[in-house]
Amino acid sequence: MNHIRSDYDQNKLTIILPNDETKPINCSLCPGNENMTNLSIVSLVAKDGMLQRLQDSADNYIINWTIRIFESSNPVVSTKVDELYSDSPLYMEPAYGYHYIVVASSKHEETFATISIEQWSNIIVILQDRLRWLYTKKKSHM
Ligand SMILES: [Zn+2]
Description:
Blueprint: E1 3-7, E2 12-16, H1 19-22, E3 40-47, E4 50-54, E5 67-71, E6 100-103, H2 117-141
Antiparallel strand pairs: 1-2, 3-4, 3-5, 5-6
This protein binds zinc ion.
Zinc ion binds next to loops.
């Protein structure tokens, strides 16, 4: 049940919602809602003690993933940029880059503090993969 608390710092009342009522009903990052995001470029699936790097396709979303990476639908950087450079009045250059979302766990409640060491190891491996790929793109862009 919601309740009202007094905020003594700001001298006002605040409505507090219990944790379970603040959880989104249709979280786009949770398993089963893959269609709410861009297609994954990597879906890491643990199977028979092996890690498989799979990828969504338009007619097949990978399920049972443990880590999922996809392009942001609202990227702050882009590879499709104007060649707009300037030194005056202020320095300016195109915001070139790739903006990915890394879903580090399939469990909505998980936090950085509760993710297992094995899962952290998987996260680091998959981030290293992405970094290696980005470095190959850096060469071709220059
Ligand atoms: Zn979620």
